[in-house]
Amino acid sequence: MNELLDVRAVSKSFRGLKAVQNASFTIREGSINALIGPNGAGKTTVFNMVAGVFPPDSGSIVFQGKPIHGLRPDQVCAAGIGRTFQLVKPFAGLSVLDNVVVGALLRSKDVSAAKSYAAEIMERLGLGEKRDLPASSLTLPDRKRLEVARALATRPKLLLLDEVMAGLRPTECDQMVEVFRGLNRSDGLTILLIEHVMRAVMALAQHVGVLHHGEVIARGTPEEIVRDPAVLECYLGEETEV
Amino acid sequence: MSRRAAALLAILGVLLAALPAFAGNYLLSVATLILYLAFAGQAWNVMMGFAGQLSLGHSLYVGVAAYVAGGLFFHLGIGPWAGLWLAMLVCVAMGAAIGFLAFRFGISGVYFALLTIAFAEFTRIGFDHLGWTGGPGGMFLKVAQRDQIDLLHFRGPPAMYYYAMLVLAAGALALCAWLLRSRAGYYWQAIRENEEAAQALGINTFRWKMAAVMISSAMTSVAGVFFAFYYNNLFPEQIFQISRSIEIILGPIIGGVGTLFGPVLGAALLTLLGDGITELLAAFGWEIPGIKQVFYGVVLLAVIMFLPNGIWPTLAKKLKL
Hints:
Chain A is α/β, with parallel strands linked by helices. Chain A is built from 9 helices and 10 strands.
């Protein structure tokens, strides 16, 4: 399998605070990966650098053999990386379908073609019946689904999910896991998720990276990670104490 | 569009086309003003209603276009058909300059609105000191025979101006309907609703916001050229002042920002009721200066309180369109 994303020694500081230090990891095409770590570990900073929200201070991010660090978010998306937002950002005044159409228009310039592709994606995510409702009327689980549908409509090679399970009930969480498994299996979609919900990480991820104080302290399968003493100490250990 | 809406639109079109046959000059001038405001409101709506960029300085484009086309006619005898293109070019360049400054350096929201006011204001002051335009003393276009139609120089009876404005307003409506259903419409609305999310979906927000400003300023420049040849006198103090910009945006706000018929409905309601109240009071022998502005204020307050999305969305639902 080929490397799809290669993050090499990226660092980022905010006014002297080192958010991410020398973090490196690679993501293989067709895999499902999770980036975990305690609050303030630098997960979102890594995520934002990959998504083009801000550039790294040093290091490089290579996607499909081309450097993407320093590109704007729209250029990163056009290169083939879709993302969701942790705090969902629906286009509240538009219908659910039109939200997804906006994403679909990236690859199909024709509006009617974009509409039919958007409708297809919404069916897969179980949003089909809600297509004509205003996005502002959706419940939180549906808003999370809409975030995913919109990102998928841009036909990404790599999907970045920012805490997409947060706030979902366990059954809703399991449904989402099934959706991502399906996308990965049938379309070969590569996924990188940043997640607090261990239930989802254990069920979904094949590879897990652990960030702590801005550094990658462990990598491996979910089973290896939960047995890693360094990880237990910094992250899972804290949780068992609570 | 539903059948019902198409039928209503056709009836409205026929009525408006037949209006000069039975309306006197006064009524025709009111109708022309309504169409003018509907057109300019439509242009403003592209920027604010579609793309979410609030301009409070649209008098800039009206004024600059009026002076460019009017000045060419006044000094060189060049008719508006040639002057229009130059006026449009200048207005689009100014819109692009404002847009570039704002969007490149992250000026948005209220600060963007302030920037648009600033441009309109310093242009007004600049024109006060330009000899070529007559300065504060104004520029007066030669008024020719009113009963002859001279299309080349856009001189003629009131009905000619009325029909010109009717064609322009209908054209603007059709253009906006098409824009809203196109890729541009989707992208603008996405930017209006959430710019960060729009950018994450691959939209080059800078480029699309620039497009909205440039299309809006180009459309408004046409209104400006019409203004010059319809009213025939231009004063920087009047044409660039902020109340001119407010006049343009009141219609869409009351009718419904971001809707297609809001600017038309708003312009019609405000002008008819505003003039109606003035006439009514005059009939009773009361001449109250500024009553129209007070009335506009009351209507604006009422709409913001009870129909914050404007009158059109509610009316459209009632009419089952």
